[in-house]
Amino acid sequence: MLILTAVNVLTAKPLTFDSWKMQIKPNHLLATSAYPVYGFPWIEVVKGVYAWDGSMLSNTLVREVIVASPRNDKHIIIVENYPRIIDRLSSNMVEVMDRAKEIVFSDKTRQNTISK
Q1: Could you give the CA distance from residue 14 to residue 94 in angstroms, rounded to a whole number?
Q2: Are 52 and 9 in contact (CB under 8 A)?
Q3: pLDDT, averaged in runs of 10, over the chain (116 residues)
């Protein structure tokens, strides 16, 4: 099973593309990496539905995977692409902006799944 997410540009609602329920097409894949900050335009996934990368709402798909399958014995692998911990503070505005992006894109699963 392959699950991809995007966000509807017009409604700001999440879009989930689940290979169990639909055929994943190239425009679904393109939508998952369409990110305006980096100059990647929205993708029309179906007529009248324009999408950007789902990380704008959630950078991991844990919620979507849990909802997609009723099984309780799931194996979910999350790859952390951005560092949570750094050794030093940023020393210029370029580094500040890079660090801000790292924090925005960092995996939020730990905060979303730990029981309180």
Answers
A1: 31
A2: yes
A3: 89 90 94 87 96 82 73 72 84 92 72 52
- Angle among Cα 98, 90, 87 to the nearest 5 degrees reads 100
How many independent structural domains does the chain possess? 1
Phi, psi at residue 93, to the nearest 5°?
A: -65, -35
Compute how many other C-beta atoms are within 10 angstroms of the C-beta atom of residue 52.
24
Domain that holds residue 89: 3-113
Number of CB atoms found within 10 A of residue 29's CB = 14
The residue count of the chain comes to 116
State how beta strands 43-46 and 14-18 pair. unpaired
For the whole model, what pTM was predicted?
0.69
Q: Which helix (H) or strand (E) holds 53?
A: strand 49-53
DSSP 40: P
